[in-house]
Amino acid sequence: MKDKGYRVKEYHCRVKRYCQTMNLKNNPDLIAMYRRCHSQAKAWPEIREGIRSVGILEMEIYIEGAKLFMIVETPLDFDWKTAMDKLSHLPRQAEWENYVSRFQECVAESTSAEKWKLMERMFYLYE
């Protein structure tokens, strides 16, 4: 995919970007299963719908070995804590978090907001 480029969404407004990280269990079979359950064919539609319903415009997850990096784009008025609380109470979200926790370095009962660690931007190519 990286050789062909990535589709980038364009918005008609300014957006906020959140970057997060998480580790998977360092097991090639589990990592392969984690990749599969996030594929377009296997990802649960209720989870994608829930992500959009809390105001998230776009979400991407990148992987290197057992390390995950997520980029989340939202409108400027998006409140992270409120949205993550709402997300955690949506139908099937707890079931999804429990399902994917077997691949992740986390406590099984953790919410998405508890598993993923928000990162601070420390550099960009200044204009």
TrEMBL record:
Cited Pfam families: rhaM (PF05336)
Gene3D superfamilies assigned: 3.30.70.100
Entry's transmembrane regions: none
A molecular-function term among this protein's GO annotations: racemase and epimerase activity, acting on carbohydrates and derivatives
The protein's name: L-rhamnose mutarotase
Organism: Bacteroides cellulosilyticus
